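Hello again, I could really use a second opinion on something today. I've been staring at a protein lately and its backbone has me curious. Can you walk me through what the tokens say about the fold? Take your time with it, there's no hurry, and the full record follows here:
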Amino acid sequence: MQSKDLVQLAEQFGNPLYVYDAEKIQSQYNRLSKAFSKVNKLRINYAMKALSNVAILQLLKEMGSGLDTVSIQEVLLGLHAGYEPEKIFYTPNGVSLEEIEEVNAMGVQINIDNLSILEQFGTKYPNVPVCIRINPHVMAGGNANISVGHIDSKFGISVHQLPHLVRIVENTKMNIVGIHMHTGSDILDIEVFLYAAEILFDAAKNFKNLEFLDFGSGFKVPYRKDDIETDIEELGKKLSKRFNAFCTEYGKELTLIFEPGKFLVSEAGFFLAKVNVVKQTTSTVFAGIDSGFNHLIRPMFYGSQHHIENISHPKGKERFYSVVGYICETDTFANNRKIAEIKEGDILSFRNAGAYCFSMASNYNSRYKPAEVLWMNGEGHLIRAHETFEDLLKNQIPLPVAMATV
């Protein structure tokens, strides 16, 4: 997409606005598929928590993707988008047995990540095909909040608890069809990923009826020019060879599963916001926009980097700005960032806004959530309307008149 296309979409649909480039999503999906083309059975399950708009789910479904879900609501959205139950993978954390049972009744693949629920579920449903999430105790990820494979993580069953896990499976006669791991997001060193894969291979040897191995995801995407990213092609070459060799050792051709979220949609996303005010203080020039961390929380939550461009005047002389929002507390997108000269009314574009951006948006300060647009075949298609005041009131119940006048 070009800056002029984004400006036109901002004029057409208003601000703030999320825009997703369908072609970029498709190219990322094809890139991952091609990297693992030497594996006979490859399955990509889109981690929909990254971006759960139904239109995006439908786009990926048409490409052959399955879904990785983490809640019963995501399962329901996947079914609503047209996915067959067998194409949906359910990997919750800390949920009740009742929710897992409800999802199980829908016919999706269950992935269990703790011994307590595993034993309870296996006792009641020994014939249901189950996947087990292993914690390999491998530290990976660019931020403590997105590193999930370390020893203090709440995710997965410790690989050191494998004897206990095996005993539960033997006692309940459970049907274990898959082993899963996920070390964290923003993986830079593929050797760390390959090391964790060896732990998964060793764990898999304890189960005789496996159908697949799920290696999670967490591939890093570039956030700025010349930024490093996971070398998917090199990983594909090395892991494919090792996976095929393991299948030979195991005596059965297994399916290799990945569950990318950010990798597929992050770079496809743009967040557009209008500059309300340019404010000079004694030490800083602020560009205050018509949005805040209610719409894009990642810079405040993770300290994440989003490249910011002035798409209204991209050729202007560069100056230093702190880009801030309108939320009534510290609300900073960027400090002392070099951006083409900004004037009030200009449109700023935030890159890498496809993953974990709208999906974590809120109505904080009673602000409306923005619209979402899919750019496809040279046109913008509205896939979520801007919220209205009626949306804020929906589900709220006022006091009865008699009580309100007391």
